[in-house]
Amino acid sequence: MSEPLLKVRGLKIGATIYPPGEKSRDIEIVHGVDFDLEAGKVLGLIGESGAGKSTIGLAAMAYGRGGVELTGGEVWVNGRDVLQSNMPDKRKLRGAEVTYVSQSAAASFNPAKRIMEQVTEAAISQGKFSRKQAEERAVALFEKLGLPDPENIGSRYPHQVSGGQLQRCMTALALCPQPDLVVFDEPTTALDVTTQIDVLVAIKNAIRDTGVAALYITHDLAVVAQVSDHIMVLQKGAMVEYGTTDQIINNPVEEYTRALVSVRSIKHIEKEPVGMPILKVEGVTARYKGTNFDVLKNINVEIHPGQTLAVVGESGSGKSTLARVITGLLPPTAGEITFDGRTLTRELATRPLDDLREFQMIYQMADTAMNPRQTVGTIIGRPLEFYFGLKGKAKQERIQQLLDEIELGEGFQDRYPAELSGGQKQRVCIARALAAKPKLIICDEVTSALDPLVADGILKLLLRLQKVEDVAYLFITHDLATVKAIADSIAVMFQGKVVRYGPKSQVLAPPFDDYTDLLLSSVPEMRIGWLEETIANRKMESAGN
Amino acid sequence: MIRIPPAALIGLFFTSLFFLCAIFAPYIAPYGMAEVVGDVWEPSSSEFLLGTDSIGRDLLSRMIWGGRTTIFIATAATILSFVTGATLGFFAAVSGGWVDQALSRFIDLIMSIPSLIFALVVLSVLPTTIFTLIVLMGLLDSTRVFRLARAVAVDITVMDYVEAARLRGEKIGWIIFRETLPNALSPLVAEMGLRFIFMVLFVSTLSFLGLGVQPPQADWGGIVKDNKEGINYGIQAALYPAYAIAALCISINLVADWILSRTTSLKGGRG
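Structure tokens for the assembled complex are given below, as produced in the milestone run.
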């Protein structure tokens, strides 16, 4: 077979943007991309947000999201240029020949319909299978994807299964009509790391067994290395590099690809604890109002000055709640928190100003952590004014000094948060925390919402600032690669308890308890064949299963 | 340079026309407010552009003077209702807990009584001065503003930047006026246009029922009341205030729509 299943030539995609206060205008977001995909092969599309990967993925179905227009080029599917076809032909293409798996299964399933009805819908309406055949296929797919109780899971509603299961249901949905091509758009990004690995295995096996071709879109090169045959690296709507998975991972040619491959390779040598701990959490137990179970159970951890304690665990393990208890937003039901030798009062309202100043917080979503109606100067200047009474010129100078420290420089004081990029926003939040001259900064998933390269920059900045300002970090994250890069000591949390705690070298050295083993082994590694090895060696089923 | 869409321009033109007439009434009105200058219900002529009213006063002058009263009362009452309603609403949302519960339930209690009936009862006891009218209308309407302001603020107070301000140790004043208010402005401004119109209608209704502005002071509702019998004889006098109210409502709405669309597209604006 000489003709590839999917042939894309000079694909150009445009969009209309509406900049505030200006006239709307058209821009080009994908500048002429070419690639081929043969039947049964998997092509990984990789790049940071805004690289155009999802847009290209959807273009394979001749579809552009609202405001997006396929302006030029050709997309050939099974020997037809689908960009030129009319609406009825496009309808026959979508859901029959090409199907789509989106990032958030929870937001994509209709909550009012049973799973089976939605999984079989396209296959039936496209006339590929009768209802009975489609349901049989669905059950077979549920089984293949490792879903529990495949006979009956289809009669459940989407909210009755877990996130990882729902993502696998969506894969079943995409495979049910027996398509030639499936577009996977970041199918595991929203999942916990231990769940991601199961879904990844399920998707990989399903692709292999059904012989379907796939476009696998993700920003995580380590993930795509596990599933794809070829990889295309995209940046700002243009191709940077294209090659086999082996070549991209082991011999990247372009500088940008090399940066992506070597991401998360920050080396951080653990520091010995010096002197008295700055923060001591002893026997803390906490529960939310109106509930009858403890979200934190007898937590004991401490942080030494100028050091980093990383708190790891998956969603729901209680790591963010620990931060809320320490800051006083959620008074603990038992236990004591000592800061710099003083016992902290349980509630925020009763704490003296100095206690508040000495620990600051940085949030996951920099977007919502800054008031959109305040300028960068106001955001950073407020703690200076509030805690130190700085005014006028002295305040301006200190703001500029802080902006220099976070590597932003001149000209940022008068900007609004909406005029900053994701990484810049997070840097401003760091500056706001530093402005208070704290002894401890609580970082709540500060890099999770950022692209890998940007996240790397933030981690490097945090490490450098730690040396300069001698500030301690309580670093909450679900990403073990981040932990390895930044921590001096680690607390692993699982279901509200600290299951493993100690200096980094000890926590990350065997023998492991089952949960830590699962967590550690689930972090995708940047090498081919990692997935199979890991699955073969696991001790415990993932918690989200 | 701000580009104003044509619809907003029309709205802006008529709104300012109404307000200018109200402000400069003494200089514009051809005759005094209560001056009897002609016969009963004279038709329009070069002397009396809109004719005369039920006791021979110049209708155009009455309309201008009446507009002054109506617009003044409505403006003052709107400002009062927004200051009280928004402050209390934000306070309830930011404080949360029992403060929020107590305030919200109290407001619900007041809202459960139809405002017109409430106003009629109060006005039958208190002296009907313009001051009483403004306070009464402002306070009654502030319940609606409270509900909106609280709903908007509840959405804002869960944002991380408000939590950050709390953690910093900020007082409630800063959280209300510096963190919450700027982000709640656009829905409030849009609502302000609407509430102003309701105020115009409310004061006109009260005057029509005889409990609002007292004669000989002119106001639009009162003009309808004075001239309503004329309709039986095909005399238009009672309809002019209705036209004026309709024109004012539409032009204010056009302006409010424009402000709403502008503030949401401001830098970092939220809807």
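Residues 6-264 of chain B form a domain with the MetI-like fold fold (CATH 1.10.3720.10). Chain B has one domain: 6-264. Further analysis is deferred to the final report.
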